[in-house]
Amino acid sequence: MATASDDSTPARRRILVAARTLFTTTGYASTTIKAIAVEAGVAVQTVYFVFGNKRSILSALLDVSIAGDDDPVPTLERQWVADAIAAPEPLEQLRIHVHASRQVLDRVGPVLLAVRAAAGADAEVAQLWAATCAHHETVLRHLMAALAAKVDALDVERCVDIGLVLLGPESHDLLLHERGWAAEDYERWVVEALAVAAGVPG
């Protein structure tokens, strides 16, 4: 399979920006490759050359939105994860974790909602949604297990369940975008709720 050259990098970025705009406004199912090409200002064949198909565009958009860059560094190897785990105090770990997660949700939240909306009618998108949810759960469990080493009798699975709700795209969208919460208020609420669930001393 052909791979994109360095010259295709600007086109790749334009395509991802265009896809994000269209997926999160008109919806994944209603967005065509042609529409993405027009929005990006590139030829249709360029879109096919760089990505191959629409599902690959969506997958790449999720990856870049979650990471915030194109570096091939897994989430669990990101600096913020290391900083959270290295924090000596449980509350500091939660603050680092929640702050980074909120920043991720700022980038990827609208895309995740578009993926969820399309998953019911597209088996491939459903698989992508399931894989993304599983990834989020894995990251949460890793961090809650690290927190359990600092807090006696912490119920890791219960904290994971609560974290999936508090740090899900639905809660983030509802509170920050629909209800107008400030990012700092959202982060404080999530930290406090997780601290209570984990039994972290105040």
UniProtKB/TrEMBL annotation:
DNA-binding region(s), residue ranges: 32-51
Keywords of the record: DNA-binding, Transcription, Transcription regulation
InterPro entries recorded: Homeodomain-like_sf, HTH-type_TetR-like_transc_reg, HTH_TetR
Domain HTH tetR-type: 9-69
PROSITE patterns: HTH_TETR_2
Organism of this sequence: Rhodococcus gannanensis
Pfam families reported for this sequence: TetR_N (PF00440)
Protein name: TetR/AcrR family transcriptional regulator
Superkingdom as given in the UniProt entry: Bacteria
